[in-house]
Amino acid sequence: MRIPPDELAVDATGAAEPQAVVDLAKQVVGDGATDVLVLAHGWNETGAAATALYTRLADGVADRIARRDVGDRVFAALGVVWPSLRWADAGGGRSRSGGGASLGDDVLQLHQAIGQSVDDAAAGAELRALAARLDTPGGRSEFVGILRRRLPDAIDVADDDALPGPLAHGDVEELFAAVAEASGTAELLGGGPGGPGGATAPPGLFPDLLGPEGSPGGRGTAFGLGFPDLSPLVVARHLINLTSYYTMKDRAGKVGAGAVARLVEELHALGPGVRVHLAGHSFGARVVAAAATAAGVPVHSLTLLQGAFSHVGFAPAAAGRPVGAFRRALTDGVHGPVVVTHTHHDRAVTLAYAVASRVARQVADALGGPDDPYGGVGAHGAGRTPGAGVEDLADRDAGYAFAPGRVHNLRADDFVSNHLDIRGPEVANALLQAMLTPPPP
Fold it and tell me: Is the pTM of this model over 0.85?
């Protein structure tokens, strides 16, 4: 396996240079690869960080290959590099009455968040200018209006965690209050950087800490509706992350259904016998699931590492719930196994979904859990999916009985400590064994 892997650059619309797709596929097939692993990164990844991730994952798989008899199979890896927004650091500045950062610090941190997460210079300038007016209803209204203009008109790859109506067009004061309530719980109970969520987790809340009214997670009085005395500057940073989340969701779907699906098809056209394997981390799991759904040719395995999409994305339709957005990938796109790592340690997936759930006014008892419509596959595995099995992610030398056409949820609590912790040999072993699973007869 070539390390570091060759890479394909994809733009924010999901397109890649057509000749680059053809050339990359020709190179891999021409080199005699029998198995091609296509990797997709998630949020917070610059080009250099994506390359480092792909190198580490490919190195781990190559090390596992060296320890096994794989016959005459020749493995190659390709990495997809796409523009992912950064999550703003929302720690500090807890409240006006409870200490934390000063007003000047809050303004500075908001400006930094805008710089990290808003990739439109004009919109960023407008948002920074409004920082001094966020303590007024008019300032908050203008701020939210700018963020709403940045939301996708329609998310091409629909999903069961739809854009919450209150975020898109609800009352601004109620929206601020809902985000303040969710964010305040994490801020006061240690969910900021350095707390239980870890410094790399996007800001939000811990749904298991949300309580009934009158408890730390219950309703308070921020802006008359939400958490008491939480600075609107802090809430604004959470709102930036929430809108970035839906922008990223839309973009990841376009990247997968566009350039990555085209790459899969080109590999198949040039080498019909080549087995193509897709693996993605975080929002990259959405990229590869969308690719497996959209491609008109089979994928031989699909591995989702702490995926950031709905935990019912593979589920059939049921009463009150539409068919999962990626159901076709399971029934018609992937000939081998679908392997999903998940853990309750993954606060990043849990937090992003739980904030969206709170904004969508889901009931507190379901927030972030298996019954939450906004639950994430990286937190709970694939749910409501007939035949999906649950087992533990085992050690680096363990064997698995993966089956073609089935979802295997691997509970990763023992080896995955947070959202980014997917580079260990245990994960590489599971990924390789998914690739080695024989296709159906």
Answer: yes
